[in-house]
Amino acid sequence: MGLRFTVLSSGSTGNATLVTNGETTLLVDAGFSARRVDELLQERGVAGEEIQGILITHEHSDHIKGLGPVARKYNLPIYANEKTWAAMEKAVGKIAEENRCILGTGQSRDFGSLRVESFGISHDAAEPVAYCFYDGKEKLSVCTDLGYASDKVKMAIADSDVIVLEANHDIEMLRMGRYPWNIKRRILGDMGHLSNEATGELMSEILCGRIKRVYLAHLSREHNMPDLARMSVRGAMEDRGCFYKDSEFKLCDTYYDRPTPWDKVADL
Predict the structure, then answer these.
(1) Is pLDDT above 80 for 9?
(2) Which residue, 173, 175, 185, is CA-closest to 225?
(3) CB 78 within 8 A of CB 66
């Protein structure tokens, strides 16, 4: 079957992504109530019983809100590094010992023929990570909630077929917005979130023939819009001499209130 995925929902109010290769199905984050997670799964024709585990990027509530209830309801193992486990333990509640699984930053784990690798990112959390998924020669990267893209991040995602990548805010919208300055400074800082412009700069550095699609994720409802995100990312790429045809490479939307269509990573 190869790798398939759907971004169930993405934004400041909640995040969850489903990845499968037909043999193994994994949920990345569970930032909604258990009921809402079930609704999102049903919209993509998946039952909770079909999931084999949950991978956690970091402990912020928009990534773990429904983690405990979902894991207990379906008796699912949770994979996170030790610092993230320590930071989210109270919020998650009681989890069976056999379902408390450690996946250290920079480590990989095989789930049958589906390989998962974690890598560290810069964000104001205990030890935040992003993930790469491999099935044969296919590669999907899911990388959000980072203040800047380090050389290690660029190396980790550069040879992906498809990337789910943060484009959180428009800088001017954020600066003119209603948030207090201390929150704006956090978002704009190296431990905050990628702006549209920063995402475009990153893509101009790593875009190659292999990368087919980038899903712009974790958009702020206050300080961004899908059309603006696509336009700004593309403009920042073109400003740095990176031009492309839509037939060769696509910028795709994610949504805060509904799933993206299933996407088969190998599709041209």
Answers:
(1) yes
(2) 173
(3) no
